[in-house]
Give the backbone structure.
Amino acid sequence: MPTHILKAYKVRLYPNEEQQIFFAKSFGCTRFIWNRMLSDKIDHYNEHKTELKNTPAQYKKEFEWLKEVDSLALANVQQNLRAAYSKFFKGAGFPKFKKKGQRDSYTTNNQKGTVAITDSTVKLPKIGHINAKFPSKVNGLIKSATISRTPSGKYYASLLVETIVNELPKTHSNIGIDLGLTDFIVLSDGSKVANPKFLAKLQAKLAREQKILAKRREVAKADQRKLSESRNYQKQKLKVAKVYEKITNTRKDFLHKLSFNLIKNHDVIAIEDLNVKGMVKNRKLSKAISDSSWSSFTTMLAYKAEWYGKELLKIDRWFPSSKTCSGCGHLLTKAELPLQVRSWNCPSCLQSNDRDINASINILNEGLRLVTIKTVGATGLA
Ligand SMILES: [Zn+2]
């Protein structure tokens, strides 16, 4: 069955000088209107104890230059601010003021072709066609575009597109996935997927560049120069930002390809539902876990399973996947299987178990058991 989905395409933009100025203005205006509306809301609340329902239009008389940017960009600020407020009333943190250079971006909506694309450009309201490079073919109806500028000075448009995906053919193959500590993931078919080597290299590079940045900060401080005026510091800061962006993009790319292949090649995919936040508190594990981006990986698996008509099952994190022998079901005690033990022989059936592969087989079996319960339950109702 085809499914309607919203898909985001990240498109690199190459604005000319005039367009860069327009973007800078737009980032500035959206940041200004956010901060101004927020501070007025706060003042109003302090005086009247109610929420001020202000709109960007009210500010256009006093600040005429707001008219120079896309009005939908300002309208979206109003909407985001409202959303941040209702989140706050539900217990989230209070909306924060935005600082310059901090995630410069604005969002506009497509109204009957105001946002459009050609093979090599993206058309935006008020500024027209901007040269662009598409990573893949954009199919479907564009709903909105978010323009952003990274700390290293690259421009992107994230296009939210409504499109249709078709289910992938069934393969009659199922798989269990365990989060590895040395490997990124370990699969129930016995294979292990390592963390990509280039990622480790980039991370080492990032650490080196950050050290240099810290030194330059010290030098500027010793010379009593402002960081904004220290050219060496700024140059290095840009370098760090570039490596960081490269890591983020490379990792995302790796996770996208891996999750897609797993979904494509299997019908039932079972994973452990790890509480990553709880685990990161454990210092020894924290680096391995944050590095491996487990939670973005499981998110990708979840929505891709839905898109492509496959079944993803999350196994309760208290399920003893490591301590159970996949051969006979014998359960070891915690003391019998300390974390450093990577393989063990079952005292009951003598099977030799690789710690992670054994865990992923148990995860798969548990997943298949849950699928059976679901299926029987569904037929029972019919
Ligand atoms: Zn056994």
Summary: The chain has eight helices and 14 strands. Residues 325, 327-328, 330, 346, 348-349, 351 surround zinc ion (CB under 6 Å).
